[in-house]
Design a protein that fits this description.
The complex is a heterotrimer of chains A (213), B (313) and C (535). Chain B is 35% helix and 20% strand. Chain B is of the alpha+beta class and 313 residues long. The chains are: A mainly alpha (213), B alpha+beta (313), C mainly alpha (535). Chains in contact: A-B, A-C, B-C.
Chain lengths: 213, 313, 535
């Protein structure tokens, strides 16, 4: 056969395949929700046990970088959403450019995040490696920073995967967009938005406690 | 008691022991009936409707919902009854009886250390008087252990980082197994001991025969000075810290507006995590003693604070 | 001379290890599971030999602890959880619903590779010196006190968890999107319903385990962690998170087994399953309520009495749908035409053993009795009745039922029946004495024990010998049938399911024509001839 089928033999049409792919992505996101959900549940249990420690620790986080990163991620999500809208044979360059923007913003996020990690390390806020804190709140604060590093680290890992996925999508679309790329782009965008939403939750949990007036 | 009229009822060795055994028998009877009925039906159908048997197979039940509803309802009602029965005894097991005798138990890999308030200590053994509720105050030095006396039908985990109260009463003198029921490492199966339940007179004689180093509260008092607690909490100290005389068992207003009772747990937490619950009107100045004292020293301090006129005053 | 089928299409190693055919992946899983089953079984054998006497005589305490830990980890994560879904499910689901393959064949292959990677990492732990935490990894023992390879073992389980998630995802999408025309939800065989319920649990519970294991590994590596009481952490939080996965995991194990039993009972009594809709929804009810009962593992752990009350109540509630299933299976036999082929013997054994396991589950759900029985051999006996007596028996039953379809060969009926009967009696002899031990108060995970428990332990070890032989038997007669067994016809059991309407073994593309389903499953007409779903 000179021309390969656009969809695998278990499907009856390209549309059929796309529906399956979309459902698969949503199920995957359900899994991810539970993954972060378990962590956030633990966070709330300990915040309930150590309210003062969590507030004190939270006030040591870098609100400026955190806010900047939130803005960056929201913008990148906007770019990705636009890219999905702009997907067509005529506008493929534009679509790829938008994806490149989102990738750039994602990288900016990671760079800022690494600066934040570095300053936290310098301020002796890394549990297990180098942790010094006001003895009044040391326990709760240590738990807070454990959650902080696990949660943001896991989120950063998801960001890297997302950047890689968007990168592949940008290359594919730039070369030859086909109907099957629409679904792939849709799934990638869904993933990217999910990672963004996780960050919004983390932002509220990490930077805001203890900063209320 | 009405239970005495039930066939095969026996009172058990602990106050709730007989009830647990009765519950067990009840569960056994229910299960046997269900299982018997099921096996009977399985056997009956297997024989009667074996393929080689030319029997009339017409008129198969097609409307199934009333069968479904009836056996669903029947099992649900039966299960609910069992639930209520089990729960009512559960609350009996973990209730707090009056007039208790406190005994401290420290679990560590792989032994049970018992401290009587008189200062007598034992390892992997616990001597108790019969027919007297004993309040065990249990703590773990390392991992999770579980205090299990099969004969008394009682068990509770001992989780590090907290005190666990457990009330036990033995009604029959004798020697009973004590097991660690939560896996705790290499010699988990060696972490066993013996509960010796004795008549009150024998118990008193046993206590007297032991050579206590000194009463727990007294040892706690010297620790209180050695560790520097008296520097702030003592009378006439310059630092403004709460006096501890008579505080045990009393409500303590906290800085955040809530009120807690100054029990063993509260005192323990105040020593290890002093900033978590600040008494109202005081500055959070006290350093944490986490890692500086072990469970056995802690319980001596608590015994000392308890002895500072907390009871009855 | 046989027609082209998925087995003889290509013979190269590459065609096996890079296959995306669900049938071949099922075979890959099948082969690897045999390996894990016998490794886990070897550990169990050593445990039972050691426990024949009260003293330590075969192994040291450290070794004993490593043995039961390995037995638990391997059997739970590398045999029971993947067993029916990944072998029988992988093979049969697309055939049953008239599909060409699973929705994501490459993901399916990736899932097997992840599984093997996880398994290899875990087995490496054994070679390196083992792990002694018990399969439950309770903190702070696992994180701060154990001197064994916790982080490695946890990594192995973590990786295999992703294999579970991918399998669950694949099944959910497949069952939603790839059903043959006319195959509505209520025309699905009940095996599909139960795998669907299983997949939901796989997808929603496994990530919680993954997160919990990450936290263990973090605590292990940093030496300070989330569950450490010394910094204000709570070891009970670990137990909550762990059982939030691990109790539903029990349903991951048993639901597919129940699904298999539906197929067997209806086929060999030549009758539709009684109360189809109730059985179908009971699976989903178990999956849903199963998420709300985890705290019944913690009645004496120090959780609040009120929490215990709620969890006890929910545990009784979750028993209702299981009871519904047992009653419906029994009712299915009524006025059937019962054939006692080997798969049916396994199915009947399943009903008996599962019911005993389920009823003793009520003992444990009952708060006051659980205080006495938890962490004793009563619990060990109970969950072995469910997982081994129930699940493994169902797995063997399903394997015998679909063996002709999978391999195109017939096995020796005589030996198959012998093995089924041996398994039933060997199993009861092994595990029933453990109920007595537990009721008398022998704690689990004990290497040495007081001598008064010896009688029952010897009985149990004796039964284990029979059980070991019984589990080895299929290896021989099934293995023999692969090479010397008679060729199987397409539909040896005269069953109506779609999987029987294609040759044995099936061709690579499953069906020559897309089947179109016109009637509900289990249509056995009055003269006991099956009417195919797609006729």
């Amino acid at each position: 056969m000179p021309e390969t089928r656009a969809f695998a033999p278990q499907f009856v049409s390209g549309r059929h395949r796309d529906e399956a792919a979309a459902l698969g992505m949503w199920v995957f996101i359900a899994t991810e929700v539970l993954l972060f959900g378990a962590l956030i549940l633990g966070y709330f249990v300990y915040r309930h046990l150590h309210p003062a420690g969590f507030a004190a620790a939270s006030s040591r986080t870098d609100l400026v970088i955190g806010t900047a990163n939130t803005a960056i991620l929201l913008t990148s999500s906007f770019a990705v959403a636009w890219a999905v809208e702009a997907f067509s044979a005529e506008t493929r360059k534009f679509c790829a450019t938008l994806l490149a923007c989102a990738i750039g913003l994602g990288i900016a996020f990671l760079v800022l995040k690494s600066f934040e990690y570095r300053s936290e390390y310098r301020e002796h806020l890394v549990p297990g490696i180098d942790f010094k804190f006001d003895p009044v709140h040391v326990d709760g604060a240590q738990l807070f920073f454990l959650f902080y590093f696990v949660a943001t680290g896991l989120h950063a890992l998801h960001m890297m995967i997302g950047i890689a996925v968007l990168g592949v999508m940008a290359l594919l679309i730039n070369r030859t967009p086909s109907a099957r790329h629409r679904t792939a782009l849709h799934s990638a965008a869904l993933y990217w938005h999910f990672v963004d939403v996780v960050w919004i939750f983390l932002f509220a949990l990490v930077y805001l406690p203890g900063r209320a007036a | 008691m009405w239970r005495q009229w039930i066939p095969f009822w026996h009172p058990g060795i602990s106050p709730h022991g007989g009830d647990v055994d009765l519950l067990f028998s009840g569960l056994l009877v229910v299960s046997s009936l269900v299982l018997g009925l099921l096996f009977f039906l399985l056997a009956l159908f297997c024989v009667r409707y074996r393929a080689s048997n030319p029997i009339d197979r017409g008129h198969q039940t097609s409307k199934s919902w009333h069968w479904e509803v009836s056996w669903t309802a029947a099992s649900l009602i039966c299960f609910l009854a069992l639930f209520v029965w089990g729960a009512s005894i559960y609350f009996q097991i973990f209730r707090t009886p009056p007039e208790e005798l406190s005994v401290f138990v420290v679990a560590k890999q792989w032994m049970w250390k018992v401290q009587h308030t008189g200062g007598q200590s034992e390892i992997n053994a616990l001597h108790i008087p019969v027919n007297r509720p004993i309040r065990l105050v249990m703590a773990s030095q390392d991992v999770i252990h579980s205090f299990f006396i099969p004969a008394l039908r009682v068990k509770h985990d001992v989780v590090p980082g907290r005190y666990q109260d457990l009330e036990i009463t033995a009604q029959v003198p004798g020697h009973y197994h004590l097991f660690c029921a939560e896996y705790c490492g290499t010699k988990h199966s060696g972490m066993t001991g013996e509960i010796v339940a004795m008549e009150a007179a024998d118990y008193a004689a046993w206590l007297a025969s032991q050579t206590p180093s000194s009463p727990l509260a007294q040892e706690g008092g010297s620790l209180f000075r050695e560790l520097g607690c008296s520097g702030c909490h003592g009378i006439g100290s310059k630092v403004r810290a709460p006096l501890l005389e008579g505080v045990y068992g009393k409500p303590v207003p906290l800085a955040d507006g809530s009120v807690v009772t100054a029990d063993d747990k509260y005192i323990r937490d105040s020593i290890l995590l002093p900033r978590s619950q600040i008494a109202a009107g005081y500055e959070p100045l006290m350093p944490s003693f986490q890692g500086k004292i072990d469970e056995e020293q802690l319980l001596r301090l608590i015994a000392y604070i308890k002895s500072l006129g907390g009871h009855g005053s | 001379m046989t027609d082209a089928n998925y087995l003889n299409a290509e013979y190269s190693l590459r065609s096996w290890f890079f296959t995306t055919d669900h049938k071949r992946i099922a075979i890959l899983y099948f082969a690897s599971l045999i390996l894990f089953f016998f490794i886990g079984g070897a550990a169990a054998t050593a445990i039972r030999i050691e426990l024949a006497t009260p003293q330590a005589d075969l192994v040291s305490s450290d070794m004993y602890n490593r043995l039961f830990t390995m037995h638990g980890i391997i059997m739970v994560w590398f045999f029971l959880i993947p067993s029916i879904p990944n072998t029988l499910g992988n093979f049969i689901v697309p055939l049953m619903i008239g599909a060409r393959d699973l929705a994501f064949p490459r993901l399916n292959l990736l899932s097997w590779y992840l599984f093997m990677l996880g398994g290899t990492v875990t087995l490496f732990t054994v070679l390196a010196g083992g792990i002694d935490t018990g399969w439950t990894f309770y903190t702070p023992f696992s994180t701060l006190y154990s001197n064994s390879y916790v982080a490695v073992a946890v990594t192995g389980v973590f990786i295999s968890g992703f294999s579970s998630i991918l399998t669950g995802l694949n099944f959910i999408v497949t069952i939603h999107r790839l059903r043959a025309p006319g195959l509505t939800w209520y025309r699905l065989p009940l095996f599909i319903w139960s795998l669907y319920a299983t997949s939901i649990i796989l997808v929603l519970a496994t990530p919680v385990l993954a997160m919990t294991l990450v936290l263990i590994a973090v605590e292990r590596l940093l030496g300070v962690g989330i569950f450490d009481p010394a910094i204000g952490g709570d070891p009970l939080l670990f137990q909550h998170l762990f059982w939030f996965y691990s109790h539903p995991a029990v349903y991951i194990m048993i639901l597919p087994g129940m699904g298999v039993i539906n197929e067997l009972i209806s086929c060999f009594s030549r009758k539709a399953v009684f109360g189809y809709k109730f059985v179908a929804w009971a699976s989903l009810a178990i999956a849903a309520v199963g998420f709300l009962v985890w705290g019944h593992h913690m009645f004496v752990s120090g959780q609040s009495l009120l929490a215990s009350l709620v969890f006890s109540f929910m545990s009784f509630v979750v028993a209702v749908p299981s009871a519904i299933k047992v009653f419906n299976w029994t009712a299915t036999l009524h006025k059937g035409s019962i054939h006692f082929d080997a798969p049916m013997l396994y199915a009947l054994a399943f009903i008996g053993l599962f019911t005993i396991g389920g009823l003793t589950g009520l003992f444990l759900a009952c708060l006051a009795y659980d205080v006495h029985a938890t962490d004793t051999y009563f619990v060990v006996a109970h969950f072995h009745y469910i997982m081994v007596g129930g699940m493994v028996t169902a797995y063997f039953g399903g394997l015998h039922y679909w063996w002709p379809k999978m391999t195109g060969r017939l096995y020796s009926e005589y030996w198959a029946r012998t093995a089924a009967v041996l398994i039933f009696f060997g199993f009861n002899l092994t595990f029933f004495p453990q109920f007595v031990l537990g009721a008398e108060g022998m704690p689990r995970r004990y290497h040495v024990y007081p001598p008064e428990f010896q009688v029952w332990n010897v009985l149990s070890s004796g039964g284990a010998t029979i059980l070991a032989v019984a589990y080895l038997l299929p290896l021989f007669y099934l293995g023999y049938s692969l090479f010397f067994g008679a060729r199987a016809p397409a539909n040896p059991w005269n069953a109506p399911g779609l999987e029987w309407q294609t040759p044995s073994p099936p061709p690579e593309h499953n069906f020559d024509q897309q089947p179109i389903v016109t009637r509900p499953p289990y249509q056995y007409s009055p003269d006991f001839k099956a009417e195919p779903q797609n006729a």
